[in-house]
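Exercise 7. Given the encoded structure of a 436-residue chain, write a plausible sequence.
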């Protein structure tokens, strides 16, 4: 597994004046006055991008890697997670300010916020020289660190520091005081002029005791990923590549062909016994798009138009329906609704999209897209509303050092939408007001 490193230097000056809406800041709460959706105290919870905050009253996130923000559903306002009057939110006297590294990840669990961070993902690359004379050197950065804090951003407590030279990143699973994830080691290799790759050298699935700060290795983690939880078990997908994927660094089409010629394995890991139960072991292309929901694994094979599922308990495999066309992708499954779609071009703009009710098997067209022709993404919600990302604001198109054309995301618009309106593709948003 490799990650391409792009060096981007951005100089930005920001001066912010904010009138605080102190009443919108979540207070340190008892379980009686704080509600969550589908998450009880101590439950096993899957933490991945797009599913990190299910707090009933608002949405927590990190803005520009420097401040914790809170969108309050009642006031429809974005505020800094700070209750200090006239604060500029630019140093550690502010409870929203993050001075403790970069690559920050934030999630809500059991009446607290958890922050996992690392400077340059646990290691940094020093580049010297120019052109053909450029060389790189790996240096230890700030190790990945796990913090816990109150819902108002106060009382940040350091719970775990990863070994030097390792990194952590989503997805995670948390249950009570134990966090499950992968500890990974990387080294940097130069692949050509101005091109470097960060190459994984080792990976371990670990269980971290957040009370003691110690961890236990569960299994080797190379080419494995946490993909879901089921019945108090971890769901792991492993890819058994036909050929070393490193052979296809400069050949994206070759990498995809190699992937489809590979095998994949889905296993349930018992967190008490550490034993693995294999649910699926077969061709990767036969389960090309995987989504997990309740006790089922949903998938569509490459070039197939059959939507299928496998029961994780019985391993029974069934075809649900025939999709309108082959090669469709599965999106998120929420409230027993499954989105399927295809791309109409190489820029990943959405072509046809449909929503299926998994209870009735009814399927209808889904047309809720933003102005850039991407699906409107659900980030969180409560009993009545979804909190959604309505649009990415794109900057001017420019040419990168590699000669490609690119647009950067310079802003994001958010809103609330009633659940019925979302599934009916009715864009009746209550738009949120961003902090100035």
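Solution.
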């Amino acid at each position: 597994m490799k990650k391409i490193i792009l060096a981007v230097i951005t100089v930005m000056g920001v001066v912010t004046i904010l009138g605080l809406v102190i009443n919108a800041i979540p207070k340190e709460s008892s379980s009686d006055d704080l509600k969550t959706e589908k998450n009880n105290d101590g439950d096993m919870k899957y933490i991945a991008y797009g599913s990190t905050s299910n707090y009933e009253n608002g949405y927590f996130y990190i803005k520009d890697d420097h401040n914790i923000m809170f969108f309050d559903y009642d006031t429809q306002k974005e505020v800094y997670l700070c209750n200090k009057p006239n604060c500029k939110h630019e140093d550690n006297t502010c409870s929203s300010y993050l001075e403790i590294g970069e690559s920050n990840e934030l999630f809500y669990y059991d009446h607290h916020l958890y922050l996992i961070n690392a400077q340059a993902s646990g290691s940094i690359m020093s580049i010297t020289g120019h052109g053909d004379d450029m060389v790189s050197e790996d240096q230890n950065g700030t190790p990945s660190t796990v913090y816990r804090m109150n819902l108002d951003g106060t009382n940040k407590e350091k719970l775990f520091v990863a070994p030097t030279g390792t990194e952590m990143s989503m997805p995670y699973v948390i249950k009570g005081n134990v966090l499950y994830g992968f500890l990974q080691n990387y080294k940097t290799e130069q692949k050509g002029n101005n091109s470097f790759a960060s190459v994984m050298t080792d990976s371990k699935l670990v269980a971290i005791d957040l009370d003691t700060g110690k961890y236990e290795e569960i299994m080797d983690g190379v080419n494995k990923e946490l993909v879901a939880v089921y019945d108090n078990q971890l769901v792991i997908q492993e890819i058994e590549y036909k050929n070393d994927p490193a052979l296809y660094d400069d050949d994206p089409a070759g990498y995809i062909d190699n992937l489809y010629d590979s095998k994949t394995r889905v296993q349930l890991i018992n967190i008490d016994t550490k034993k693995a139960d294999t649910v699926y072991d077969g061709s990767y292309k036969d389960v090309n798009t995987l989504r997990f929901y309740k006790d089922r694994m949903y998938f569509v094979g490459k070039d197939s138009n059959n939507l299928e599922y496998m029961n994780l308990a019985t391993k029974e495999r069934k075809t649900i329906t025939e999709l309108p066309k082959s090669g469709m992708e599965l999106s998120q499954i929420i409230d027993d609704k499954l989105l399927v779609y295809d791309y109409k071009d190489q820029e990943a703009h959405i072509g046809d999209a449909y929503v299926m009710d998994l209870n009735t098997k009814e399927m209808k067209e889904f047309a809720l897209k933003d102005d850039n022709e991407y699906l409107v993404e659900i980030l969180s919600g409560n009993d009545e509303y979804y909190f959604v990302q309505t649009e990415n604001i794109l900057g001017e198109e420019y040419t990168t050092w590699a000669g490609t054309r690119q647009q950067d995301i310079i802003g994001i618009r958010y809103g609330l939408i009633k659940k019925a309106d979302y599934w009916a593709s009715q864009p009746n948003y209550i738009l949120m007001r961003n902090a100035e």
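Remark. The radius of gyration is 22 Å. Students should compare their own answers with the one above.
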